[in-house]
Each structure stands twice: as C-alpha cells, then as structure tokens.
Amino acid sequence: MFKRRLAWKAFQHVAAYNSAVFEWFWKQTKSGEFVSSFNVFLERSSSLRYGQNPHQKAAFYLDKSLSDVKLGGIATALQHHEKEISGNNVLDADAAWNCASKLSTPTCVLVKHTNPCGIASRDNLVDAYRLALEIVLGWSTSSVVLLLYL
C-alpha cells in the first residue's frame, strides 16, 4: 500500500507539471481562442462534518493558487469556531460573502439556508452585529455569521 501511495503522489506531481507546461504552451500561441480543455488541481483543505444531509460524507477542496495571493473568498477565510462545518455551512458562508464583499464598511451578514436574513453595516463590527441580530431576532434559530472588515 505504501508503494501505491508513493506512485499516486508521483503521478499527481507529474500531472500538475504537465498541466502547467500545457498552459504555458497554449499562452504562447496567442490565438485568442478559448482552450479546448484544462485541468484544475484542487487540494483538500478540510473535512466537513457532513454534506447537504447528515448521512453524507464531504470534504472542502481549495485552489492553492488563490490562497497564495489572499484570494478565494470563503475558501481562504479564517474560521474562528473549532467545530467542523457542514456542506450547508459552506454554501451559507459563500452567500454571506457575496453580500458583504461588495460593501466597503464593517458589515455583518446572517444567513440561513443560503438566504440573507439579516445584514447591517456600521462604523464598527459590534454595532453591525447587534443591528443584524436585531433584524432576525425571533425569526431564525441558527445562522452562519460573516463579519467583514476591509
């Protein structure tokens, strides 16, 4: 089993290298056309608690080139809670990021089932959080909370 793992790892590196060479040669053609196919290499960044349903296994994969340049939205965001997130939490966090990333002031977004149910922008994150929570009090029992300070 050890040798198979090493072989898999070696072919993984070769495939990534070949893809990079392919991309370099394609750029040299300067044809202006879209490439007919391409490979995207993703790396597992975390195991998820479950997928869309509790009986499903799930993992979260990341394009390393995005994290290297501090891009990638929620894929490269810092999670402050230690509990593993679920696939639904990833979708909710992405919806929250799509709302908040367009704003330039400290913003809090509360999301339930990919629907923003409370959003507020204020001069500081505490006030934004309090206002967003006030909006949803009594309506939502649990949400993904995204705090954005640019």
From TrEMBL:
UniProt-recorded Gene Ontology molecular function terms: IMP cyclohydrolase activity; phosphoribosylaminoimidazolecarboxamide formyltransferase activity
GO cellular component, one term: cytosol
A Pfam family matched in the record: AICARFT_IMPCHas
GO process annotations (BP): 'de novo' IMP biosynthetic process
Residue ranges that the Swiss-Prot or TrEMBL entry lists as coiled coil: none
InterPro entries assigned: AICAR_Tfase_dup_dom_sf, Cytidine_deaminase-like, PurH-like
PANTHER family: BIFUNCTIONAL PURINE BIOSYNTHESIS PROTEIN ATIC, BIFUNCTIONAL PURINE BIOSYNTHESIS PROTEIN PURH
Protein name (record): IMP cyclohydrolase
Organism expressing this protein natively: Ceratopteris richardii
High-level lineage: Eukaryota, Viridiplantae, Streptophyta, Embryophyta, Tracheophyta
